[in-house]
């Protein structure tokens, strides 16, 4: 069992900086080309030095890896490619010793088709209790040759697959990820036990995958555009599940972060009521273009939607599903939209990097917690993956038009001169671009102007300034295209998204700039600064 967690500050999660580790691509301890827990353990000092408060691990459980581990075959076992349960326990304890909390990823909407429940369901046949844990149905059409309904998949293509005995089963994602039937008591009981299993091992939190999709209209009716409620997104019944989860989390002092993609702010906030989830990812900020008015509105809307339920906002620029920040900000369209993904969109990486540096300071100055996706602190761009090396099912299910998500999942570069940039071994599971030496941790560590140095300094300052993190925000008057926001203790963050250099408000101290001020002491375009304002 893991050692006790570091002493709990009150509600640490309200302003934590949480680093997302994609274990397959973080560090490879055994040199087989796949990242693993041994690699993470060896690099924990790096994370402590970076100054993060917690680490969220995308799924490390036993999985055939059809969807990067989001197809779980056994929630109580670590995949052998990553290590063992004992190693996970050691990792949790070692992280705790360094003051880093661990968040695991629970995938309640679906399991792998190799999960014992699904194998039993296939073997047991139509009408069996084993099938009742999933959504099996006869097909439509004279011979049942048509799927039971027309639901669109989250991954393009059909949501139904037919099995040899003629029945169909539902899968919102790939056919290898059958959806669980959340109306079944076994499903609820099992997940409550899984939560206890990981909380008892010392994890501080749980990220909930596809958190708004679990419950389905029992009739499984056809999808009708604009019909409310949707047959499987955000049904009212789902909140009952999270209330029971919250009671379990409270027993252990654990916290939740939900993956809740919902356009309606009021519906989103329901997940954050005091007896439900503590936090949820802020996708409106993640998808927001690098435009001053849109960003300001996204920030205001976020704070306004969280306020009535008393939940802190989260701020996310990137994760393992979306285009990396420096590439996105270097494009003509700086927003993110799954539907718009395609090959060959040009990006000005120098511009994108400049903006990503400014966005880092903006994000870290906002009230709430911040998620940082591995490699973001290195300013990694989205990589082009050769067609014959792509692994992501999103690419295949789009008919090859969507490049998929592998471009943001490339193994990290640690050492500029080492094979595979020191990731471990010689042949990483996804190829690393030939021009990544300059992004390697060892090079960036030695360069005070690197993205890594900027993040380290920003995290160090943020940690020492109680005015950052949770709390209120006030907009200050600023020229068009400039965002100027004040926190408490005189802290001010100014971001210039206009075309011209901007004058700064009066200040006593300049704490940090994302790029240097110009010779006149003005803030250049696509630059952010943290100041301590002059006392009145
Ligand atoms: C969201 C995860 O972030 C993504 O990577 C995964 O493919 C889907 N949920 C399905 O589990």
Rg (CA only):
23 Å
Q: Distance between the terminal alpha carbons, to the nearest Å?
A: 54 Å
> What's the number of domains?
3
| Ligands present | 1-deoxynojirimycin
**Biggest sheet, strands in spatial order?**
11-10-9-5-2-1-13-12
Q: Give the integer mean of the pLDDT values.
A: 96
The major β-sheet equals: 8 strands, parallel
Q: List how many beta strands DSSP finds.
A: 18
The multimeric state of the shown protein is single chain
Strand residue content: 5-15%
CATH class of the largest domain: Alpha Beta
Find the CATH superfamily of the largest domain: Glycosidases
- The low-pLDDT segments are 1-8
Indicate the CATH topology of the largest domain. Answer: TIM Barrel
Quickly give the CATH architecture of the largest domain: Alpha-Beta Barrel
